[in-house]
Design a protein that fits this description.
- This protein is mainly α and about 110 residues long.
- Helices cover about 70% and strands about 5% of the residues.
- Helix 1 packs antiparallel against helix 4.
- The chain is elongated.
- About 10% of the residues are buried.
- The mean pLDDT is about 90.
Length: about 110
């Protein structure tokens, strides 16, 4: 899968507040589907759909523990998204620094003139 397609899936998954809350819960450790469903007023099929989106995006993984399939956060996949955002932030910061330098030059020139 291309990096852009992978990021598209991750950002689409992160766009939903329920899925972000699920990721926050999984950041504290593995959880079963029923444990993940508890804080939400949604049906079992609805939580399963959210989990499927997160799994397809690679943000969570399923484990196997006797009769249950606990979910866990895929930190590496989340870091891929964070790295992309940090890269964009760096570009913006460089642009703002150049703009700041330009404005200071203009201001200095107008005071001298």
């Amino acid at each position: 899968m291309a990096i852009n397609s992978s990021l598209d899936l991750k950002f689409a998954a992160l766009a939903d507040p329920t899925r972000r809350a699920i990721l926050q819960r999984l950041a504290r450790g593995e959880a079963t589907v029923s444990e993940l469903r508890k804080p939400f007023q949604i049906s079992q099929p609805a939580i399963s759909k959210h989990l499927k989106v997160l799994e397809n995006a690679g943000l969570i993984e399923s484990g196997q523990d006797a009769q249950s399939r606990p979910r866990r956060l895929n930190v590496a996949a989340l870091n891929e998204t964070v790295d992309w955002v940090d890269g964009v932030r760096g570009l913006w910061n460089e642009s703002f620094d150049r703009l700041d330098d330009f404005l200071k030059t203009i201001q200095r020139t107008s005071k001298e003139g």
